[in-house]
Amino acid sequence: MLHTPLTRRQALATLLAAGLAPLSRGVHAQDAYPSRPTTLMVGFSAGGAVDLVARQLGQVLGQQFGQTYVIENRAGATGTIAAEAVSRAKPDGYTLLLGTQSTMVVAPSMYPNLHFDPLKDFVPVSLIASVPLVLVVNPAVPLKTVQDVIQYAREKKGDLVYASSGLGGPQHVAMELFCAMAGVKMVHVPYKGEANAISDLLGNQVPLMFSNLPTLLPHIRSGKLRAIAVSSLQRADSAPEIPTVAESGLPGFEALTWFGLYAPAGTPQAAVTRLEQGVKTGLQDAALRDKLHSLGMTLVGSDSAAFRDYMVAESRKWGDLVRKAGIKPE
To answer: Where is the signal peptide (predicted)?
Structure first.
């Protein structure tokens, strides 16, 4: 049987088509991301700020992509249990982490035996939001300004006590940064949770602390606590009457609680880009914005590259502080 050139070309075309078919299916499958439910892991208990942000984010991403986002809480060890689990997950975009600065930039310097590296084992997808802290005192303590606090600490010669929600938490490292920049020493009293620390502050068992502004604002408004300064570089929209630490004598001072979305390293770029765009669009949702703003949060929605740069800077800043202050786990 004779084969004409046309027949050979047809055969070649058939072979090429067969070879390209799997690639074509892969491209379409990738373009379809996400095509099934996604687990969004949280390293803290349900009901807290991190959990709330994760649930709000999961809801708006689910609405955009037509898929379910399942929130899984694996609390403990400053969020590192959940982070380790996500770092080992299949890098397909269907297991994500809602991480915080405590987990992703402070804990690695405190716990040298962690089984993950935040910058090597994760893709930072987007910085979601941040929350300023506020330095407060019990009204029985005769302090009204940052300079008052610094002078009082000097007079106490290292015996001034401050509270925090626990070792390595944002309240703890914020005060350590304050002490380092002011050139003073204080005694740290870590509590098991923010609520317990605030309770003793209200009762004047401890004189001062940094804590999340949204949590303390009702006590400030009622006069049960006196606000000294906020930890952000700009004044908070929810309390513009409170000056910043930076403008009150410690230029450049900044310590924030922040929340970011992470995927395991090796996650396809197409999935990362889709998630990044989903976050940016989701943060425009009016209900989400109202909810997070009501909690005193500043919405960010950065791209992946900007979030990585921020992570590098934050890791250097807080890692140096943890080492110099000698902050170690109990």
So the answer is: 1-29
Rounded to whole angstroms, the Cα distance separating 84 from 86 reads 5
Residue 41 identity (one-letter amino acid): M
Residue whose C-alpha is closest to residue 110's, from 98, 122, 118? 118
Q: 159: domain range?
A: 132-230
Asked if 325 and 187 count as a contact pair (C-beta separation under 8 A), the reply is no
- Mean per-residue pLDDT for 131-139? 96
Task: Write the pLDDT tens digit of every residue in 148-196.
Answer: 999 999 999 999 999 998 888 899 999 999 999 999 999 999 998 888 9
30/60 Cα distance (integer angstroms): 21
Q: Residue 327 carries which DSSP code? A: -
Beta strands in the chain (DSSP E): 38-42, 69-73, 95-100, 122-137, 161-164, 187-190, 208-212, 226-230, 256-264, 298-299
Instruction: State pTM to two decimals.
Output: 0.84
Q: Given 195, 230, 265, which residue is the final one in a domain?
A: 230
Q: Which of 230, 246, 266 is the last residue of a domain?
A: 230
| Three-state DSSP class for residue 189 | strand
Q: Is 189 a member of any domain? A: yes
Same domain, residue pair 99 and 146? no
